[in-house]
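Many introductory courses stop at the sequence. We go one step further.
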Amino acid sequence: MESLKECMKNHQIRALTQIAESGSIRAAARAMHLSQSSLTKALRELEEDVGAELLVRSYKGIEFTLAGQALLTHARLALSVLDKAREEIRLIRGGAGAHVAIALSPLLAIEVLPKVSMAFTQLQPDAELSLSEGFLSSLVPALLEGRLDFAVAIADPADLPYELVFEPLAPVVALPAGRRGHPLAGARSWEALKEATWVMNFSAGSQSETLVAWLRENGHPMPRKIVKCTSPMLMAELMRRTDMVGFCPTTLLDDETYGSGLHRFEIEPLPPPMALGLITLRGVPLSSAARPLAALFVRQLKVE
């Protein structure tokens, strides 16, 4: 009887996550090959179990309550962990098809990722690897819901929720830069750059966000005009082809491809470096495929 109860709970949790993915009870029922009444019953039983309303209907359709949103995050993580456990068992029994999903700072594309990718292919030739850019705004919910195995990104540990563990691996120094021949190429202070148009990435926890906070806290002139951009490629091209100024990690400026046509501004003082590190979910072990991949990143960054 207890096992039947646990099985029903698993079914309810899958129903909840499917509703979130499908956008409606009807579409979720169709995706799960169930009747709407069966799915609605499972949802009501889940609401009774947790003692809270999880969904409400509005003119927009189905919306999750605050309780529903909280449960959905944990439900997605629980199902992800269960799926990874099944994958582990399949691999132990000789099956193939391990999958690792990670988010990486664009900085790693310069030298670290190519080396790690080749080494990982030798270790796990049959593993499928999924990569995404490591911006905190997207990687934090993805890690909390189990959609990512781990991330290697720039972060301030104080900005991360308790559920995530940050292992610092390398400092990241950044400074202002613009095109070669820039009219402000001789600038030596923040005051000299205050009239410049800046192109900045203001994703949560980004170096640009940290720079602006540091300028304000230390009484330096603030940029008066800012173009917001989350694409490293677009930022680089705007810096190369216009008079826009960016705040760039020296790792990118040192690269002969990315840094081509760019000039560093010798500005002082500079804000302290931020940390690039490994971000994992607290209390959840990495899979047998993700574990060696994370170790490769750690080893390579400590060498660099």
